[in-house]
Amino acid sequence: MEYKTRRDNDIVYGEPLDLPDDDRGLGDFFYDACMKNSDKIFQIDGKTGRSETYSTIFQKSVRTAIEMRKMGLKEGDVITICSVNTMDSVVPVIAASFLNITIANLDPSLSLRDSVYLLRTVQPKIIFAEESAVEMVENICGQLSCKPSVVVMGATTKHIPFSEFLIEKPGENEFKPVVVRDTNCPAVLFFSSGTTGMPKPIKCSHRSLLMGAYSAKKMQMQPEVCIHVSSFYWISAYLFTMMAADCGGRKIIISKFDPEVLMSLIQKYKITLVFLASNVAYQLTKENTAGYDTSSLQNIFFMGSILNEEQLNKCQTYFPNSLASIGYGQTEASGFISVFCKARTTSLAKKHRGSTGLPMPGLEMKIVDPETETTLPPNVSGEIRIRSSSDAFFVGYYHADASDAFDSDGFLKTGDVGYLNEDNCLFITTRIKEMFKYQSWHIVPASIEKVIYEHPAVKEAAVVGIPHPVDGDHPMAIIILKEGYSNVNEDDIIDFVNARVLDREKLRAGAKIVADFRRTITGKIVRKDLRQAAIDGKL
């Protein structure tokens, strides 16, 4: 059935979200999923082929919960998992939900500085660490006052082995999740990406995470078989785990992206949904995707940053039976904000390539001039703001004020700039903090970057503003070239771009060709550092 939105006074409304009658916590959600699907396979190790059923995961999670309770953990305490995406990493996640213990996870690729800062903020009682992350965790603990216990998911002679958590426990057959009295209490503390400052812990409640999963269900996005690379540091890992569990689906577990591995797994396990960071889309080519049977694939979502339309169209040709699309989401919104999916929005997705889709069920969306607070009509860019009719948003920042995150009408200020077209499809152009002014004109980096990507030699591009004493900022392009284009120089790029953009968008600060950008662990370019390096002459 086609997905329907409506527009009223320049506010676009997604379909109503039919809420369940009960008010469950995450523990009840996972308990019910495991009971209903006990004999079905829940996850498969993509490297070894080893599989685990829902009943196996349930037993491991119950035993882990009992052991955590034995160690004195109680509702409201915080634990941390520091692990890439593995077969074990989901167990403490479910176990914590059974006890209404809050989770604040790390990714092993985070810097020591950031990791220490984050854990000083949340003060975990236990850190579950995969074997390769133990040294990192030890270095973190050496700088913490709370001195958490370390549980190693692997071999150890120094710390508590995770295997001790998994042995048979008294009372495990009678175990039931605790009753969550307030489903708006924080279940997970996610950390903001830190592209413009130190990350902040974002409090997502039981209810907000469940609403994110329910809205995906209404869009018919539930996967029979899915794959994602992200660890539980990211909300995407929670969202796709919940989407799979709710329909008795299975997850294929891999810890890092490799195009050939992905293609072989799609063919072998008949994967129906793939979630990838936008930056890895450039690694998918005609050569490494050809010859594989991908007919099972229904949806491939690219998220995390803007993906140029040319590469999106290439990816669509690599997966002809699926819908390749750019999704848009934020942790503060507990998952997807706008999306296209094959089951309900294929025709609009084909009509509006480059759009991030339609507002999710239960969401209201408007585009606002952030300087005047005026709501803008179709096809006019401004700040994207959203409101939930189902408590599907975060419940604040941990030990930090969140009042400025919402406007006077209760709409979340996303900080992203974009527009809604005449079909209510959303297009993302840039971040508010990435915009700069040239002679009082607002310069949107993505507008110039779109032209830069038309040059056949350009693999990736970022435009930043370089301070000028008279004009405000001058645009500079920072470029990564494709292999085989070493003969292309910076003047070639400048001439190409300046012939195709408005006068105010010309690359008056020039262009720089670099080997790579500094990125967050999701692949987002850290523009503030890139800009500063350009100003300091250190590119």
UniProtKB/TrEMBL annotation:
Residue ranges constituting the AMP-dependent synthetase/ligase domain according to the UniProt record: 32-398
Annotated compartments: Peroxisome
Top-level taxon: Eukaryota
Pfam family for this entry, one: AMP-binding
Record PROSITE patterns: AMP_BINDING
Recorded GO MF terms: CoA-ligase activity
Domain AMP-binding enzyme C-terminal: 448-524
Keyword entries, A-Z: Ligase, Peroxisome
GO cellular component terms given for this protein: peroxisome
Gene3D superfamilies: 3.30.300.30, N-terminal domain of ligase-like (3.40.50.12780)
PANTHER family listed in its UniProt record: AMP-BINDING DOMAIN-CONTAINING PROTEIN-RELATED, LONG-CHAIN-FATTY-ACID--COA LIGASE
Family: Belongs to the ATP-dependent AMP-binding enzyme family.
Protein name from the UniProt record: AMP-binding enzyme C-terminal domain
Species classification: Eukaryota, Metazoa, Ecdysozoa, Arthropoda, Hexapoda
